[in-house]
Automatic annotation (TrEMBL), chain B:
Keyword Signal annotated: no
Originating organism: Slackia equolifaciens
Ranges for domain 4Fe-4S ferredoxin-type: 84-113
Keywords: 4Fe-4S, Electron transport, Iron, Iron-sulfur, Metal-binding, Repeat, Transport
Protein name stated in the entry: 4Fe-4S ferredoxin
Domain of life: Bacteria
Keyword Isomerase appears in the UniProt entry: no
PANTHER family on file: ANAEROBIC DIMETHYL SULFOXIDE REDUCTASE CHAIN B-RELATED (PTHR43177:SF5), PROTEIN NRFC (PTHR43177)
SUPFAM superfamilies on file: 4Fe-4S ferredoxins
Gene Ontology molecular function, alphabetical: 4 iron, 4 sulfur cluster binding; metal ion binding
One Pfam family recorded for the sequence: Fer4_11
Amino acid sequence: MAQDTIRSQGYERRAAFGLVAPTASIPSAGDAYARPSAIACPVANDGRLEADYLIIGNSAAGVAAAETLRACDGEASILMVSDEPYAAYGRPLISYLLEGKTSIDRVGYRDAGFYDRNRIATLFGAACKVVSIDPEAHEAACADGTVIRYGKCLLATGSVAFVPHIEGMEGRANVHRFMTLDDALGAWEDAVESTRRAHDEGCESRVIVIGGGLIGAKAAEALSHHVDEVVVFEHNNRILPAVLDEEGAGIVQRLLEPHGIVCRPGMSAEALVGEGDRVVSAHLTDGSDLPCDMVVMAVGVRPASSLAVDAGAEQGRGLVVGRDLQTTLPDVYAAGDVTQVSDRLTGAQRPLALWPNAVHQGRIAALHMAGVPDAPDFVDSFAVNAVDFFDISLLTSGIINPSEGDGCEVHTFVEGDEYAKFVVRGGALVGYVLLNRPDDAGVYTSMIEDEVPLSSLEGDVFSRPVGNLDFSEDVRWRRLHKGYPGTLDEFGWSCDPGVRPDSGTDSGSGTDFGTGPDCCAGRGVAFDSGVGAAFDSGASADSDPVSSSDSGADPNPDSSSGSGSGSDPDTSSKSRQRRSELLSGRASEEGDFA
Amino acid sequence: MKRIYAIENWCIDCKRCEVACKAFHSSYRDAVKAYQLEDETAFERVRVEGGLMRSVAVNCRHCAHPKCVEGCISGAMRKDPVTGVVTSDPDKCVGCRTCVSMCPFGCVRVEPAGVKAIAIKCDLCGDGAGEPGEPRCVAACPNRALIYVESEGC
């Protein structure tokens, strides 16, 4: 049978959804990434490298820490070491790479000049992997024997895949992980090859993903672009068990099916059956056998904390760190997935393997390492998850599966494929699920973070997305007007009684009354399409826009109110009175807004 | 840096700010064409919350310590170290919505852009990333409910 007459159902489905990603050339990461830094690390007389700050790890926490350290200390030597040979890249992007939503030259987390510009020396590659640290001697040893003497050290080693032992998985070329760029590129190549081989034989290609959490689901989404079917096994009775509830998981599972992704929660692979160095089928826990071309292991991750633990650091479910993010080893700090944090909402001590948390902790750890006075402490945190699959958006936060007797009340809203759930405890929001209803999710997050009493909000803030108008006027002003100049009152007028509102010198946009359309008419923005007819002042479309000028800080110290929320009552009421006098006078004089 | 502040008391819910924003950020740079020809690139970045007894335009606050920048997995969302303007690089953005989940004001949205979706938010009408320009919403507001003034202390 000619190859091009074989059109698998899978290919047609993927083509119909526009999901056939270019596979003509799977990029080699080595082309785009070279040794990124020209900065040399100081070498001592005894051959040891020396660095004031040693950062082990080159991802979110490591990069955030490095640039914060450089911002705090212009002179210190900073050395970053990582076992991955690439400049820092956005690790969660690896699935998007396989989907054509980004490319190798765009996954870099910072620009190409980042390391040089910040004078960060780098040792990146498998040979440079730090294999032990000696906190007393302040030394770290690499796989190739290099020894680094450090002043302070940051462990930003992230997560490592938890790989359970499944019979038959060892020594197989087609068993992949999905953590690193190399993992993703290897899986991509294998998937494309498997599909080609399968179609040659008149079959469909299939990938088995073991693990239906975030990583497994994203791997499945990515690989579904390159194979005919992906089957996801999940030990729990629902997919995405850590970040979603049963009802939401059911909706996601249903929406993934048309994309060739079959989820089998409550089922797993007992053994992998192979021929030579390739797995050819999985023996399932229900006794059946499922042929496959490739397997991805995505069962879970755990903190990559062995360096510190081997050196005697205290570990709970992650490295124990103080409020300054120092481990129990002096001068050894930790940030990101490797740490355990206190969950603000439940009190649990657990890892929080989320990108924003890693960046935040990296920054805070660096401030403490640099000895910045009044550096903020890291106290606690809570989970905020954001993920998307095809057209599905999923945002969840906080407590989403409360138990009976937790004192939580739950509000759910379902409309088609939209599912929203809000968990309330003690009169405040403590968790949400927003599936296909992403609007204003961050406002909900801030309600959890600030423990906003729901009684202080107007209206029903759950049945439709919460907005800024739901907050009381005072709170709304405070939230939205950070940095509002003290020289202006709450109406935007200058507090200086000598400044008339239309004088053009007052601190404002410079927009005079009645000339709205003119301002938009410059700079190529055509606004003369009838919308401004009521304000027609006959200005041509080429006139210069009224310049946005402001008089900056009010030179008159008497009128300064000094507070972001506006002026003191006396000045405000005076300006209100003055303005109403002016307005009543102007109405008869100039006839604006006639 | 200068920021746009909304003066709620003057807002009349006319949404000219949204129209001007959408027009400026469209490929046609023309309000009628942006709407009538359904320009796929045109999304307004300021939104008026209203339809009620009060209304207010909400746009990105270009925060001193932006949560969106902290959360961005691709490095697309950046705060310019000199100008302070927060912008998202549409080439690097993959539309994961981490920024949406973190913005306390709900002023970043993710909208379709070809094969992917990207974060859309106020960029102070600049010509380039991180460069502030002349905000069109401020110019369009007929009632001075939007002002563009120098912030204090952040």
